[in-house]
Design brief:
The chain is mainly α and 72 residues long. It contains four helices and no strands.
């Protein structure tokens, strides 16, 4: 997860899009292990929401939607 958070610092829309797609898949499959990473996910997604890249920002919201669905 730390490597994914580091990749979030790369200012490239394609990289950030792939990162958020991977993050969404990871959250779906490994939700029980995400407790220690929620703050990092929050920081990353917040940063993406204020970035000029639309696709990664949309996928950042999708990560939280996935988290909400898994919790239900």
């Amino acid at each position: 997860m730390d490597n994914l958070f580091q990749a979030g610092k790369i200012d490239d829309e394609e990289v950030l899009t792939s990162l958020m797609e991977a993050m969404n898949d990871i959250v779906k499959v490994n939700y029980d292990y995400m407790k220690d990473y929620i703050e990092g996910i929050g920081n990353l997604t917040l940063m993406l929401l204020s970035s000029p890249h639309d696709k990664p920002a949309t996928l950042a919201v999708e990560v939280w939607t996935t988290i909400a669905e898994v919790e239900l």
